[in-house]
Amino acid sequence: MGADVARAIRGLPILSGSASQAKHGEMITVGGSSHTHATTPVEGPDSFARRAQDAVIASGRKLSKEEQAKRDKNGLDLWDEIEARSRANEYPKGTDVFLQKFHGLFYVAPAQDSYMCRLRIPGGQIRSWQARGLAELADRSAAGHVDVTTRANLQIREIPANQAMEILYGLRELEIVSLGSGSDNIRNCTASCLSGIDATELIETLPLAKRMHHCILNHREMYGLPRKFNIAFDGGGKISALDDTNDIGFHAVRIHQDNATSAFPAGVYFQLTLGGITGHKDFARYTGVLLRPDECIEVAAAIVRVFVRTGDRTDRKKARLKYVLDELGFDQFIGHVESQLGRELGRMDADFLDVTGGEDRTAHVGFHPQRQEGLHYLGVVLPVGRITSSQLRTLAEIADRYGCGELRLTVWQNVILPGIQESNIPAVQEAILAAGLNYQANAFQAGLIACTGSAGCKFAASDTKRNAMEIASLLESRFELDQPINIHLTGCHHSCAQHYIGDIGLLACKVENGDDMVDGYHVHLGGGWGTNQAIARLIFESIAMNEIPDLLSAIIGGYLQRREPGESFTSFAARHTVEQLRQISLTPTS
To answer: Is the overall model pTM greater than 0.85, yes or no?
Structure first.
């Protein structure tokens, strides 16, 4: 303001007055003289999305309901409204339900008359003191438990209306944020959960996920996208970060000396992949662009800004990045990204890259040696991702006493405790079992993935978490496997549990049972990821939940009886037709 006064007295244009005055060319009187602001609105970070909306309106098309809500009121600016509602013990109404998700608060009625709060845990790493704080917060202001998500993240559930601000303040005091964790924003940035401790990885990715996290938080134009957006970094180690299911995937590769060029000397780089959205049956595909690690954040930000401009703001079903790529093609889209950056990106044919394929599907469960001599990490089984506050405190205590004071969340809905001395393994085993948890790679519970389901989400058609535990319990009583079979249960078409990449994928539906509608599932078989990418095929439709355990028993029994030596379930399913799989599932096994 002082600078504006000085410029006005000298008869110079005022540059930084209020946005509304600048927009309308209002007069300001300083020292008895009147001066007019420039009539051109100042370009701010919110203008990225605003211009995209303006273009839709100018073309005669209509913004979607959600886009109009964002145009009328920026979801980032609701803090005072949320606080007022919390004091009044009220939940939001109308489009404020959608906009409040910008702060991570989801009003989940009619499933529950409460909030769910989704956090941001970049790379899935939390400190033990933060875990203890979250346990206290969940006890004080929620239901006394937290859920690990398929984005290596946490959700706090069953939050009363009058506790909303207690949650938001409490998170900030724990140095955890929820801003932009819902609605049309970039979700939790994921990384390889063994970053820095995996002897097989090519590069650490946790630092990159954290840098991307802070880039998002500190650039306002990276909010209010056409639809939600996912970013993942995979360092090429034993546990996949599922980067091929993300809108942007960075997958570490190596160029050996015999394939090196002046543009790409021998070393580790990241393949840039785009367009992953397995709920729409698409994996991210390599763009041909190869990046140095120090380029990744800048390029990701440019991609997001191009998506802000080009994404569909009229049809929510076609608003993800995949559909921009379908329309423009990868080359043209990358051209837009290069224009945004102001430079060309380097390209390298995939044939000249060494892509590691050493993934271990059991590495996220049990004790395993680390890169650091004498140290081990422990993968703790959390069936369907739920953990009580008491159990979370126990894990924090174990991390402090026997580990390195940190916990790693994984995209497989479990927790890893790193830094355990070999001599302390028996004590840790005892403590885990005493807490009612498990560390053994039980083939069904360890590979069980489930979304919130109808118990906590209005979109879900079935109670997926409860059903998942029922299924696992029965299968464990009937089979002992020598290799994992992943079972993914998702409650609706949003595919939060990524049913299309599971060995067995169950998509919830309602099934007629006389005059009633009961929980049921569509059954898909043969999904995979990474080097075994596959979209599971629909084998059975609309099967009532009470029939699912026996049907899955028949499927698994048929696989065990007919597989080739050492054959995985995904490979077994791939070499059979849909009709053959149906017949195998319906044929009694000895």
So the answer is: yes
Separation of alpha carbons 53 and 69, rounded Å: 11
Which residue is listed with tokens 């028996």?
426
Distance of CA 345 to the CA centre of its chain: 27
List 125's β-bridge partners, or say none: 408
DSSP string, 68-93: HHHHHS-GGG-HHHHHHHHHTT----
- For residue 7, is pLDDT > 70? no
DSSP β-bridge partners for residue 523 = 506, 540
Residue 33 has pLDDT above 60, yes or no: no
- 194-215 as b/e: b if 16+ CB within 10 A: bbbbbebbbbbbbbbbebbbeb
For residues 362 and 371, give the distance between their C-alpha atoms in angstroms, rounded to a whole number.
17
DSSP letter at 352? Answer: G
Q: How far apart are CA 206 and CA 193, in angstroms?
A: 8
Close Cβ partners of 29 (under 8 Å, ≥ 6 residues apart): none
Burial profile 164-193: b = 16 or more Cβ within 10 angstroms, e = fewer: bbbbbebbeebebbbbbbbbbbbbbbbbbb
User: Closest Cα to residue 397, out of 367, 372, 427, 422?
Assistant: 427
Written as one string, the DSSP assignment of 517-569 is EEEEEEEEE--B-GGG-BPPEEEEEEEEGGGHHHHHHHHHHHHHHHPPTT--H
Residue type, 589: T
User: What's 199's DSSP letter?
Assistant: T
The least confident of 122-136, 238-252, 307-321, 479-493 is 479-493
Exposure on the CB side of residue 449, measured as CA atoms within 13 A: 28
| 47-100 confidence digits (pLDDT tens) | 889 999 999 999 999 999 999 999 999 999 999 999 999 999 999 999 999 999
Closest CA to 138 of 113, 162, 101, 163: 163
